[in-house]
Design goal:
Length: 81
């Protein structure tokens, strides 16, 4: 079985580590983007199964990341929490 891929977009290192730890314990593959720009780059490379998105991010806000996600055909249906 292939593990679901989760992209955690969070600039707080301790919080993102905790989230990824718990996702991994649940059998999911988690990766982290520390800001909105990095998130957009990772999303262009490969769409995850789910995005856990912080609203208040450096460079590009989480709200803008979400807007751009919804505009792209390859990511418009990716769930965002």
């Amino acid at each position: 079985m292939i593990a679901p891929r989760i992209l955690v977009v969070e600039d707080d290192a301790a919080l993102s580590e905790l989230i990824c730890y718990n996702l991994a314990r649940s059998g999911m593959e988690a990766s982290v983007a520390r800001d909105g720009e990095e998130a957009l780059l990772r999303l262009r490379e490969q769409a995850p199964d789910l995005v856990v998105l912080d609203w208040m991010l450096p460079q590009v806000s989480g709200l803008e990341v979400c807007r751009r996600l919804r505009r792209e055909p390859g990511t418009k249906n990716v769930p965002v929490i």
